[in-house]
Amino acid sequence: MEERSLVAHWRAGKGKEEARRLRHQGLIPAVVYGQREETIPVTLNPQELSKVLREGSGERTLINLTIEGLQDGPITKTVILKEKQIDPLKRTLLHADLYTIAMDEEINVNIPVRIVGKAAGVTVQGGILEQVLREIEVKCLPADIPSSIDVDVSSLEIGDSIHVAEITLEKAKILADPGQTIVTVVPPKEEVVAVVEEVAEEAEAEAAEGKEAAEEEKGEEDKG
């Protein structure tokens, strides 16, 4: 997977007031951390980070991060976006957690599922394709992170499903539950409603027959 470059600056300030000051300047606070490394507080340009993610593989993008402003001079680390905080109204970045990775150590990462093809159960039978699972967690080396997991639904008919157990990846181990459904084709809503109505009508008819039989039986008893 291709790496994207980004520059961050070490920051000394902390807290809400510092975060507001940075955002007023068009920057956001962020942290860089790893399993065996000290956390480094930094500032980032959110537009540059968004561009890197957009041009790369989204949150799975490997970022070649240069941290400037340190006492011993700038350092460069390979990181991946671990978490982000988004403004609920403006939908802009407020904070980012960047996780340091080693290219020779496997990491866990969620990979998006991409549906390929058109299901026969939809195009021919008029069914509805329902995607149940949007991401699948895998474990692999950073360089082997797939951009997506393609699932071909062309052969699916109404009632058919594809499960995690049916997916194979050459350079990654799937961690998700093998029994999880990824995608399925269900009957059209009209058909489902018709079946429900038919069952309801049958139940009403049976109830009416039972009531009529009970009344006839009672009438016979009264005559007796």
List the helices and strands and how they pair.
Blueprint: E1 3-10, H1 16-24, E2 28-34, E3 37-44, H2 46-55, E4 62-68, E5 75-86, E6 93-100, E7 107-116, H3 120-123, E8 128-131, E9 135-140, E10 149-152, E11 161-163, E12 173-174, E13 181-186, H4 189-223
Parallel strand pairs: 1-4, 2-6, 7-10
Antiparallel strand pairs: 1-3, 2-3, 4-5, 5-6, 7-9, 8-13, 9-12, 11-13
Commentary on this structure:
- The chain is an alpha+beta fold and about 220 residues long.
- It has three domains: about 5-100, Beta Barrel (Ribosomal Protein L25, Chain P); about 105-185, Ribosomal protein L25, C-terminal domain (RNA Polymerase Alpha Subunit, Chain A, domain 2), CATH 2.170.120.20; about 190-224.
- The chain is about 25% helix and about 40% strand.
- It has helices spanning about 15-25, 45-55, 120-125, 190-224, and strands spanning about 5-10, 30-35, 35-45, 60-70, 75-85, 95-100, 105-115, 130, 135-140, 150, 160-165, 175, 180-185.
Describe, in short, the structure shown.
The chain is α+β, with helices and mostly antiparallel strands. The chain has four helices and 13 strands.
Instruction: Report the CATH architecture of the largest domain.
Output: Beta Barrel
- Cα end-to-end separation: 90 Å
CATH homologous superfamily designation of the largest domain:
Ribosomal Protein L25, Chain P
String of helices and strands: EHEEHEEEEHEEEEEEH
CATH-assigned fold name of the largest domain: Ribosomal Protein L25, Chain P
Helices, by number, come to: 4
Q: Strand portion, in percent?
A: 35-45%
Low-confidence runs? none
Strand order across the biggest sheet? 1-3-2-6-5-4
Oligomer: single chain
